[in-house]
Amino acid sequence: MKNLATLLLCLTFSFISCQTKKEDSKNQLDIKNASPVEVPLKDGMARAYFASGCFWCVEAVYESVKGVSEVINGYAGGHTKNPTYQSSNTGRTGHAEAVEVIYDPTVVSFSTLLDVYFGSQNATQVNGQGPDRGSQYRSIIFYQNETQKTLIELKKEALAKSLNATIAAEVYPFQKFWKGEDYHQNYERLHPNNSYIRNVSIPRLRKFQQKFPHLLKSNH
To answer: Among 20, 83, 188, 218, which residue has the least CB neighbours within 10 Å?
Structure first.
């Protein structure tokens, strides 16, 4: 009887887990099929949203680019409200670590920001960048209108041909960006001696800077 009770308990948990995964998959599919939300200019500044592994790394890359005034770390692409660092790390929220790039479109274009995106990562790595693995570190490009979507797809296709490989970045309609915790903001600048920053973030930033010196601010 004890073994039977244990078996029934296991079957119940397996059923619940299976149903939960199905619901999560449906929620993610709904997000991918949703209409994009376009963020209006504010004080002449536009906003773009990207996920590409650890947001500490991505923040530092984009903040080095001419025309970018600020980068905010947070979460996007998932189906749960008010995600946190802890909850996103479970992989169950659907969210990925993402950045909000605030930029002057008269100085740097969305097309150039896409070049920065693809040029600052391993474009073929699925569900992560470098040592960071999991759906919360996957690569996603968020589009706000059909023009942006078309441009993203064209650049993905061209890069796939040049590398003769599949490009891992997903393409999502932008829905909402959830700002991350305060301690994640400006992380590389405030914690230059952190071992992860020294060994992962800074090498990734320097590799990008060497490839795109013409896009850098004068102080980088």
So the answer is: 218
